[in-house]
Every structure is written in C-alpha cells, then in structure tokens.
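Sanity check. The docking grid for FE2/S2 (inorganic) cluster depends on where the pocket ends up, so I'm generating a full predicted complex first rather than guessing from homology. Inputs follow.
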Amino acid sequence: MSSGKLNLTLKVWRQAGPDAKGEFVTYYAKNISPDASFLEMLDIVNEELEAKGEEPIAYEHDCREGICGTCGMVINGRPHGPLQGITTCQLHMRHFKDGDVIYIEPFRAKAFPVIKDLIVDRSAFDKIIQAGGFISVNTGSAPEANTIPVKKENAELAMDAAACIGCGACVAACPNASAMLFVSAKVSHLALLPQGLPEREIRVQKMVAKMDELGFGNCSNVGACEAECPKEIKITNIARLNREFYRARFLSNVED
Ligand code: SF4
Ligand code: FES
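Predicted complex below; grid placement will be based on this.
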C-alpha cells in the first residue's frame, strides 16, 4: 500500500548574487507529506542541504498566511504555482503527484533584479507607493465615520482593489513585465474613496511616472496578470487607471 508520501525532483534556480550566473540545480525532496505546504517542503530540503554542509536555497516569506505578499516564486512556469487565487505559502503538496518534476524560479522582470536564488528585489513597488500611493491625513481626533458617505458600490470596488498584497506576481506573469495591475489596484482603492480625493490627480500621474522610470513595461491586454494574481484583482482596474490618468492629464492642462 502506498504511504501517500511524495518523492519529487526539484529543478531549482540557484544564483549566488545579483551579478552571478544562475543555473537550475536538481534536488530530491523525499517522503514529503501531502499535507505539507510548498514552503514547508522547501524547508525540509534546506534542512537536508544544511546537514550536508551545503548552501540552503534562499527564498523569501514572512506571514505564511497569504497576507504579506513576500513568498512569490515561479513554480512550473506560473507565479505562485498551479492554483488560482492563492500565494505560494498557501499552496500544499497534495496538489502534486508522486514522481513529479517541479521547476522553481524567481519572479523574472528587469525591475525586480535577483538578489539570491529565488529572492528578488521588489523595492520598485515601494518606490511607486512612495511616489503617490498615500493620502494626507490631518492629525487630531478621528472624524465620525458616518459623516463621510461612501456609495456601497464604490466601497466594494475600493475594498476589492485594496486586497492587493504587492506580491509582484502580475509583473512576473506579464510578457511586458508591466506593473499596471498593481498600480491600478492602488490608484483605484484610493480614488474611489473620499479620503483619496485631495491627491487624486497628482497621485496617478506620479505613480505612473515612477512606474515608467523604474523600467516596468506597458499593458497590452494579455490578461496574464489577472489570471495569476493571488488576490484576484480584476483587470478592469487597469481601465480605471487609464481613465484616472487621462482625466488628471486633462485637468492639469486645463489648469496650465
Ligand atoms: S495585483 Fe495581484 S499579483 Fe499584482 S501585486 Fe497585487 S496581489 Fe500581487
Ligand atoms: S509568506 Fe506572506 S503571503 Fe506568503
């Protein structure tokens, strides 16, 4: 009778540093419980590597609950792996079969340079947020929430957009390495709420300018971002981003 445990062949991208030449290296993950998460499986492989005095595979994670967005990697060609609507840390080994060969790579995009193995530098996203992804808040006591009416439809659209965890899978999935799903989620969730209106025009222009400056590509409506987004952010946000951008440009020209 089968033990139910999995024996897998891993082809893992190893790269010692940003300028080092990378390559796929083969490892064997033995006796893996189907209940283990993908990151727990990598932990087991790393414990064996360390026991042999070898360098463990470097990968990033924090919450392991699908919240922080740090655990992204490309598994068999798909950011965050074969399932939809989940992060790598939420992926379990029961979705693989005994004997599978699994290719594991970092997110690949010019704006996300590899730091080591599966870890990429996604600070470009922080720079886009710093450029405009915030609201001005007057200090003092909080206003009574019900004095600021928000249409239910807008509240729900803003909430959906705010679910973006900044993982970067949209960039990794896009053949143009576009960050437009991420930027559109941030622009949408703020532009749809009254609190986001004071910086509405300047925000979208600054965030788009920073996105372009950092080397992300443009959207050409491939749709891979929406398909691979672990938070199922809709591509309709990109349409809203475009509308917000042209509206802001028009109003800036009017003011000129
Ligand atoms: S839009 Fe989706 S894929 Fe892109 S950063 Fe946000 S959560 Fe990740
Ligand atoms: S480790 Fe936080 S989302 Fe995966």
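Relevant for the grid: Residues 69, 164-170, 181-182, 185, 229-231, 233 surround iron/sulfur cluster (ligand 1) (CB under 6 Å).
Also worth noting: Strands lie at 6-14, 23-32, 74-75, 78-79, 101-105, 114-116, 119-120.
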